[in-house]
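Fold it.
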Amino acid sequence: MGRNFQVLLVDPDVDHRSQLKQLLGALSVAVVGEAAYGVEASRLAAELQPEVVIVHMEEPLALALRTLEVVQRCAPRATPIAVSRRTDAHTVQRAMLAGARGFVVTPTSVDLLDRTLQTARARHVDVMRRAASPAGVEHDLVAGTVITVFGPKGGVGKTTLSTNLAVALAQRTRARVALVDADAYFGDVAITMGIEAERTLPDLLEAIEAGQEVDVASYLTRHPSGVYVLPARHSRAMSAAPDPEAIASLLRRLAASFDFLIVDTPGTFGPQVAAALDESTTALLVTSADMASVKDARMSLEALRGEGFDRDRLKLVVNHATNANSVTDDDLARTVDYEVFWTFPHDREVPQSTQRGEPLVLWQPRARMAVQVDALAAHIGGAPVEVERSGSVFGLFRRR
């Protein structure tokens, strides 16, 4: 290469990152930083101000695309380049629309990577020169991954998934994880986690509404797993339902401080749920396999698609809460006209875990549902996931 570019490598897949570093090591390139998606990437981009940012485009694609967009705001003079094992036109198009100046399909050769880096950097420098961008651009340090868990009705396992996923993410990564119970007065996150909290979500929102300067962190309760929890209120009189914009504003504040923010929502589709969905990086729509739940899931999907909700952000999750039905995921996907993203089998340990007030991934980590929640956490965190496919809906693990 013509000169020693400073590169920030954003890739949560350790093996893939190692392969890229070997290729870059053969060039006159200095890898000045490495990061996973989200807050870590945005902070390093702002701190290091690299000349090139290479972002791995992989599932969950919405997280990768959002990171690609955010690092450009944090380091506007850096040349963004996307790399991916994916060769489909959809991924390439989305990456370029998100601002990538080049796209490299991996595995690749040193020469091809070199040409892409040089061409993309030269093009970007020329654009910056012509635009005469002013110095001293302020950096928007946002980008924690917000995962909203929702469903059109109660009893489908939202809280079980939310609490176990938060714990699994905290265990799987070194990231900061927060869990918000957005069902302000009837949520069961605290019970499921086995914690008692002096301060709750309504307390925090009331303090903010009263114009007080609040330390949001002081309202969070730290679970032994490392997850920071903002629970519902189970005592004292109920006040009005939280203002949706207040919920959205709070989630944005938390997303600026935590790498992963899990939002457990009420069992009815209302304004608070809509606000959480608007702020989410990924939305997990949870349904059970009974026909009433499937019907409600179909209606929710149709409504969200009608509102233009990004398909890459919206994932359908099937929880086989009982073993009393024979509906397969393929049947369900055809009925709702939407691909099933993740499946959880019936597990008799789940009710016992709830009664104990201990998330299943801690109490019985080898239980069938615990294994799959852990695999989902690995997938979201960017780790390789081994998938065992089975003809039965109650197979050990299936990721669609």
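The chain has 15 helices and 13 strands.
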